Amino acid sequence: EERLQALEDEGKTAMLVAVDGHLAGIVACADTLKPFAREAVAALRRMGLEVLMLTGDNRRTAAAIARLVGIDRALAEVLPEAKAEEVARLQAEGSGVAMVGDGINDAPALARADVGIAIGSGTDVAKETGHVILIKDDPRDVAVALQIARATMRKVKQNLFWAFAYNTLAIPVGAGLFYPVFKLVVSPELAALLMAVSSLTVTFNTLLLKGFVPPSKRANQIRK
Asked: What dihedral do alpha carbons 94, 103, 124, 136 form, nearest 10°?
C-alpha cells in the first residue's frame, strides 16, 4: 500500500498484478506531460481564468499531475460519459466553460462546453466536435486563441461604438435638423462621401488586427 501510494503521488497510474490469486507486483505507467503545459496553465491564470483538470485517473494521481502544472482544482475518477455532466454542472454554477481535449472520450464534453477546443494532433472525432482546432500540438496556443478572441471582440465593440456615434451625429445633419440655425445642407455628393468615410473608418480599424500579436505569443518568442 505504501509503494502504491508513493507511485500515485508521483503522478503514475499503478496497477496491481496477481498470480493465482496472490499479489505478485505493481505495474506503474504515466502519460508524459505535454511540453510547456505548466506555461500554458500559467498564461491562462494570468488572463484571470480558472483552470480545472478533468481526468479518469484516481485522485492521488490527478492531484500529483495538477501540482506539477499548477492547477488548483482537479476533478478525478471521472468516467468518459460523466465529463459532459461535469461541464454541465460547471455551467449550472454560472461559469462559461471552455473545454480542451484531444481524445475520443473528450468529444461529449467538447460538444457540451460553451467553447470546445480540440488539439490538432488528437483524434478525428475530437476535431470534428470542437469549435476551435489548434493546428499545433502546443498547449500554450489555448491562451493564444483566447487572447485573439478577446482582441477580436474588443475590435467589434470599437467598430459598433464608432458606427453608432458617427451616424448619431451625421443623420441629424443629413435630415436638415440644423438648417434653421446653421443653414447647413448636406448635398448627395457629401452624403455619399460621409457614408464612405464611415465604412472606411470601420475597415481600417479592423485591419489594425493584422498587427496584433497575442501577449502569450510575444512571451514565447522572447523565450526562444
From this structure: 80
Nearest to residue 146, comparing CAs of 219, 49, 77?
A: 49
Query: Tell me, what's the pLDDT at 161?
Result: 92
Residue 98's alpha-carbon distances to 26, 35, 93, 112, 183, in angstroms, are 37, 21, 14, 9, 56
- Check whether 24 has a pLDDT greater than 60: yes
Give me the amino acid identity at 185: V
Contact by Cβ (8 Å): 122, 129: no
* Nearest residue to 84 via CA among 61, 114, 60: 114
pLDDT of residue 221: 63
Integer Cα distance of 91 and 85 in angstroms: 10
| Mean local confidence (pLDDT), 40-44 | 93
* DSSP character string of the chain: -HHHHHHHHTTPEEEEEEETTEEEEEEEE-PPPPTTHHHHHHHHHHTT---EEE-SS-HHHHHHHHHHHT-SEEE-S--HHHHHHHHHHHHHTT---EEEE-SGGGHHHHHHSSEEEEETTS-HHHHHH-SEEESSS-THHHHHHHHHHHHHHHHHHHHHHHHHHHHHHHHHHHTTTTHHHH-----HHHHHHHHHHHHHHHHHHHHGGGG---HHHHHHHHH-
Amino acid at the residue 155: K
What span, in angstroms and rounded, lies between the C-alpha atoms of 118 and 213? 22
